[in-house]
Amino acid sequence: xxxxxxxxxxxxxxxxxxxxxxxxxxxxxxxxxxxxxxxxxxxxxxxxxxxxxxxxxxxxxxxxxxxxxxxxxxxxxxxxxxxxxxxxxxxxxxxxxxxxxxxxxxxxxxxxxxxxxxxxxxxxxxxxxxxxxxxxxxxxxxxxxxxxxxxxxxxxxxxxxxxxxxxxxxxxxxxxxxxxxxxxxxxxxxxxxxxxxxxxxxxxxxxxxxxxxxxxxxxxxxxxxxxxxxxxxxxxxxxxxxxxxxxxxxxxxxxxxxxxxxxxxxxxxx
Amino acid sequence: xxxxxxxxxxxxxxxxxxxxxxxxxxxxxxxxxxxxxxxxxxxxxxxxxxxxxxxxxxxxxxxxxxxxxxxxxxxxxxxxxxxxxxxxxxxxxxxxxxxxxxxxxxxxxxxxxxxxxxxxxxxxxxxxxxxxxxxxxxxxxxxxx
Lengths: 270, 145
What we know:
Shape of chain B: globular
Strand content of chain B: under 5%
Oligomer: heterodimer
Largest interface: A-B, 23 and 29 residues
Number of domains of chain A: 3
Shape of chain A: elongated
Number of helices of chain B: 5
Helix content of chain B: over 70%
CATH architecture of chain B: Orthogonal Bundle
Number of strands of chain B: 0
Radius of gyration of chain B: 15 Å
Low-confidence stretches of chain B: none
Largest sheet of chain B: none
Mean pLDDT of chain A: 88
Structural class of chain B: mainly alpha
CATH architecture of the largest domain in chain A: Beta Barrel
Distance between the termini of chain B: 38 Å
CATH class of the largest domain in chain A: Mainly Beta
Structural class of chain A: alpha+beta
Strand order of the largest sheet of chain A: 1-2-5-4-3-12
Low-confidence stretches of chain A: none
Order of helices and strands of chain A: HHHHEEEEEEEEEEEE
């Protein structure tokens, strides 16, 4: 009994008795309300502890792997840079492929032509002249007068040829003129360059029927350009009873400002 | 440059540089610069050889002389110089082209090229003149020694 009277032993014994009571009573369900109350009271504390421990673990992990993370970031940055370069290269390759596909279709459609593909490497610095410079010259068989086309239509002709480059006068140049005909009516005329305003077909007789939307082709007259090459489409017709001829505004089939690749018809001698 | 196109016309940067330098340093330095720039333009152009050199040299000299009465920091100087130089440069170029037998429609050339060029060059002259003025001020003391 002297043991039970000891002050330090009493709480321990009480605790043991209490635990025993809880263990025995818990399966019976009598303690459920108490358990719910304790769980509800401790839930915020539990959440806070969990949140804190998760953060601390995360920081510890970060600190532990700091060096490797920095290396990983560098590696990922390099990968992003490489993929961006690759992406640009692939886009350019896609555009080039589309151009080459167009040119191939043109070649298949015109098997009699001997064609030489050339890249546009420059444009005339003057606003008064409309020329482009291509990366093929006399050493590639380029000669003055050769027609230059794209799969969409006529571009112009070679006016100057150097060993490794050549200058092409575009249809829009004020000095350019091409004998042409309207596809539907076969009316003939001359397509002249109008600078920034595009192309104008002149010397079309007044009685010739010309409609907006008609296709304009090379007539081959004069022998400067091959026959039946597309020049463009009629966008406006100007008739005046006082004039001998009507004037036809033509929208070129080729976008001259966006030219990147062209084809030189080598087998055509003007 | 085609991306800077306004009504199908691009700014004549070479002209602006030459005129700006002529205004800042006088024709003693502007003339050789115009000559060298004109030759480069002629080599790149499909026009008659010498046309750009002659047009650029005359345009920059006249534009520079005519602006003597205007202060170098005046807000109107770039506008006036660029407009006058553009009219002279394109005008002389057109005359040379015509003299060489190229078919030139004066009205078309004026409306399609010269008018939009004046607008473009006048706009582009401000940054061009500003940059070159800074360069001039940084190097002018070494120049005078």
